[in-house]
Amino acid sequence: MVKGANVGLTALSENVGSVVVGLGWSSATGEGDADVSVLLLDGDGKVRSDDDFCFYNNPVAGGGSVQLLGKTPTADGSEDRISFDLDAVPQEVDKVVVAASRYGGSRFGELHDLRLTLADGAGDGLVRFAVEEADEVSAVIFGELYRRSGEWKFRAVGQGYASGLAGLATDYGVDIDDAAEEEPEQEPGQEPAEAEAPPQPSAPAARVPAQATGARADEAHTEPAPAPAPAPAPAPAPDPVAVPKPARRPRTAKKKVTLPRTVRKSLADNESWRSARLFPVSALKSDRERETRATSVVLAVMAQVPEFGRRLTAGFGAPAGRMETYTEVTLPHGESPRRPDGVVRVERAGKLWTALVETKTNGNALKPDQVQAYMDIAARRGYEAVITLSNDVALEGSPLVDVRIDGRRKHKVALWHLSWAEVVHQAQMLIRHEGVGNAVHAWLLQELLHYLQHENSGCHGFQNMGAAWVPVRRGIDDETLCQGDARALEVIENWERLVRQVCLRLGGELGQKVLPVQRTRRGSDPRARRTELADHLCEQGRLNAEIRIEGTPGVLAITADLRTGKLRTSIEIPSAEPGYPLSRVKRLIRRLAEAPADLHIETLVEGEGTGPRGTLERLRPEPADIVPKDGAQITGFRLSLFKGMGNGRGSAETGFIRSVDEAVDRFHAQVVAQVEVPARRSRSEEPAG
Fold first, then answer.
1. Alpha helices in 328-411, H assignment, sequence order
2. What are the pLDDT digits (tens) for 315-341?
3. Tens digits of per-residue pLDDT, 565-576?
4. pTM, whole model, 2 decimals?
5. CA dist 389 to 371, 460, 462, 499, 529, Å?
6. Exposure pattern of 309-329 as b/e (b: 16+ CB <10 Å)?
7. How many whole angstroms separate alpha carbon 101 and alpha carbon 166?
8. Bridge partners of 415?
């Protein structure tokens, strides 16, 4: 589409009761990012209340009809996705505005390939709109969904706001609060205290602090708030890796409950006592038992915790309605009836959305004939989707199962995949960082999380580098692995799955967006990109990946050198602050006071040359050793840790997957966390990319 054009959705697809809008962009460094926001407007073009302003700290609006799904890795990098249940949007809402904003003085001109996509409930792309001429603005309206004569239409807007989110929000009736006060933290189960009412505007309005021109909202109710501290001493000189002070949060009317991070003192007599669990795992003895129990547990919690069920199904085209789940349902299929592991059914305004669920645990692969049978059954019965759930991670251009679609059938069935790692991630995000409706729901999610993470559940995510792992390693060792070898491509695909799982796990623990970085040309074919990486593996013997952690001043790089058996984790941090070179180095080393002694520090200088380097142990008494002797300008520092690489293809203690997890965890906890802002920002405050 071109700017200003509009189109009726029913003219594009029959399945537009629920649609998914994606907003995407790219940057040369992989660090650029923006925040997505959605405004629901009435006939006067204004928001009605707080609930009509959907943003990072209020990801659900319009009674669940609009939901931010977060970032999803794609062939071109990643994109923010938003689910719209158009049939459930309140009748008083005439228009829905989809926008994004940047923060900290950044502009959209620093990003490339700004685009919006819109897909129907089956996942088929209907609309694509590229936004141009957004160089000097910090907020952009990408598009609008609006009603005309009972039909939903889409308009490509592409309008920029130099005044950022504050200017955009003001235009749509959002009141700007210059003196927003912090809300008190709340323990689970405690009734929220009434906030002091601010002066009332003439019309209903959501309240947003003026500083939040694109910054995210603080997360509420994650930990008890600390007691007020005495007046601080004069601040020291600026640090070379300091990040601008985060803005205050937009205040919303909703109170959420999360579980406290600190474990309460146990009343047990001794450590041998085990807490009673809602979902026990001790009796599981076979893969069939694990599969049946895991399916029942997850589906039951989905039906009882609306936020969790909606989070897992919104991106699959499910409406925002009453959910019921079933297990071991028998459905006719020729002479032999089939029994899918589960069924998810959502009802909204008398209409049913149904998905069949096929589950695998303990590393067992999905069976194409089973999935094909469920696709055929769903098509005959008018069901909307088949959802597969296993330890595998799906990749674009590399389907886990190939199914045949009968083009003669008018009714189309969507095939979706979930990894157990994604289920765990969503549960962690809700109970640790974002919150759910009440303490009982939080407890249910905690019990689910305990079950899924137990070693006996079989729900551990991607756990095997595949049959090609050992032959490829041997081929690299004896230099017999040739370019074009299909086994190298298999290793590359599994490496990408592992990196995506690392991002999910780390993101769930931190409450931050953690995403893989792909420095590829827009529109490049995923298969061609992986083939090129496989050729590099054959030639260089190394696996490379980069991940971006929100709030971190740089990109975390992971290199697995299969020739030397070493894992390297590193990050480059800028040093643009004024001061003498030695002063910059000393400030950095002070920040790394708790970092391991074997941390490697390399000075980055202007031009193509490299600066001096050394270990932290040697540099602590002699920081001048990494100051360039030729007077070259310091542009930053590269921090690296090295670790032995596991040999096995699995996740055992000596396996490769375990060694990658441990290397990333150690590097983040002992290095990355120390070069962030001294008072660590929450997931929802202003990020650095």
1. 368-381
2. 898 998 899 999 989 998 888 899 999
3. 999 999 999 886
4. 0.81
5. 11, 12, 12, 19, 26
6. bbbbbbbbbbbbbebebebee
7. 10
8. 386
